[in-house]
Structures are given as structure tokens and as C-alpha cells.
Amino acid sequence: MESAIERVLITREELERHVARIGAQISEDYAGKDPIFVGVLKGCFIFMADLMRHVTINCSMDFMAVSSYSGTNSTGAVKINKDLSEDIGGRHIILVEDILDSGVTLNYLKNYLQVREPASIAVATLMDKPARRKADIYADYSGFEVPDAFVVGYGLDYNERYRNLPYIGVLKPEIYE
Ligand code: IMP
Ligand code: MG
């Protein structure tokens, strides 16, 4: 598996440090607000699991599953495969994403959830790739700004592989060329 990795972009230690920082910041900003963390599956699962252990306030968690991606290029189309099980009317929502790339997925999700009249919607992303942004969307909380390279590990995949790498690595271009 690791022979597919060109280089390590973010080490386990850096991940741990920055995820802790975001958890502490959210705990401060949302004290007394009882937010709902909404993880966007599948890519969020490791980040969210680690993040939640650094959140020290009352909160709940829910998940959505969307697909918008095939291989290394966003198709631009977003499909909801699993919707929320909690009612979000009047609640503070924090969307948890693995990576904000074109922004098409999150922009769609934000608009989709807005209709249910939550009190607020914020975005927490592990990584931000601003060079590729197409939609007018930004992260309220971001772990790392990353260059325009295809990255895998710590929940992120290439065709469902490499999610289990404990760090973020740049995939060798020959894997997807
Ligand atoms: P967007 O709609 O273009 O912002 O795409 C968001 C989704 O595409 C993310 O949640 C990821 O699942 C996937 N994605 C974007 N860039 C990468 C990458 O470098 N590696 C793995 N998945 C990626
Ligand atoms: Mg993906």
C-alpha cells in the first residue's frame, strides 16, 4: 500500500496537533450552544473521530453520505446517499469535511440544509485546497492548507483505497494516470 505514496505531506504528529487545536477552538466558540456535528461520509470518519475527542462541550453528532467524486476529478454533480436522522431546525450545525477542494459538495450541502432553518451552519475541514475552488465557500475551521496535489490517508481515498494510512500522503501520479 505505502509504495503508492510519493511523499508524506502531513505526519501523524502534525495531524494530532492541528486536530486538537480545532477541537479546542470549537469548544470555546460554541460553549453553551449544544451544536450538532454533521460528518460528511466517508472521508470525514477518522478526522471526526479524533476531533470529537478534543471537543469538551455538550454536542451531538450525525452523518450524511454524499457522492460527487469518481477517481481524482469532481463530477460536479452531488447525490445525497444518506440524509440526517436528527431534526436541525433552530440548531447550530458544524459540517465536518475531509477536504475542501472545488467546494461544490459543501456549497450544495449548505444550501440543502439551510432550507431546514438551522440557527447557523459552519464548516470544519481537515484540509483546504484553495487553488481549486469553484464555489463561493470558505472554511470556518481548517487544519491545513494543502497544494494542488491528490492526497490520501487519514480517511481520504483514491477509489476507496488508502483511507487507512495513518498520515496524509501525496499519491504517485502513475497510480491514477
Ligand atoms: P469538492 O466538491 O470538489 O470540494 O470535493 C470534495 C470531496 O472530493 C472531498 O470531500 C473528498 O472526498 C474529495 N477530494 C477532493 N480532493 C481530494 C484529494 O486530494 N484526495 C482525496 N479526495 C479528494
Ligand atoms: Mg472521497
Explain this structure to me?
The chain starts with a strand and ends with a helix. It has a single domain, classed as Rossmann fold, CATH 3.40.50.2020. Helix content is 23%, strand content 35%. α3 links the parallel β5 and β6. It is of the alpha/beta class and 177 residues long. Magnesium ion binds next to loops. Magnesium ion (MG) binds next to loops.
The CATH topology assignment is Rossmann fold
Cα-to-Cα separation, first versus last residue: 17 Å
Which CATH top level class fits?
A: Alpha Beta
Give unreliable regions as ranges.
none
**Average of pLDDT:** 94
Structural class: alpha/beta
Ligand kinds: inosinic acid, magnesium ion
The string of secondary-structure elements, in order, is EHEHEEEHEEEEH
What's the total helix number? 4
Q: Report the strand count.
A: 9
CA gyration radius, whole angstroms: 16 Å
Strand content: 35-45%
Question: Helices and strands in order, then pairings?
Answer:
Layout: E1 5-10, H1 12-29, E2 36-41, H2 45-52, E3 60-70, E4 73-82, E5 92-100, H3 104-114, E6 120-128, E7 141-145, E8 151-152, E9 168-171, H4 173-176
Parallel strand pairs: 2-3, 2-5, 5-6, 6-7
Antiparallel strand pairs: 1-9, 3-4, 8-9
Helix pairs in contact: 1-2
The structure holds inosinic acid and magnesium ion.
Residues 43, 68-69, 74, 97-105, 150-152, 156 line the site of inosinic acid.
Give a quick precis of the structure.
It is built from four helices and nine strands. The protein has helices at 12-29, 45-52, 104-114, 173-176; strands spanning 5-10, 36-41, 60-70, 73-82, 92-100, 120-128, 141-145, 151-152, 168-171. The strands form two sheets. It has a six-stranded mixed beta sheet with strand order 4-3-2-5-6-7, sandwiched between helices. Strands 1-9-8 form a three-stranded antiparallel beta sheet.
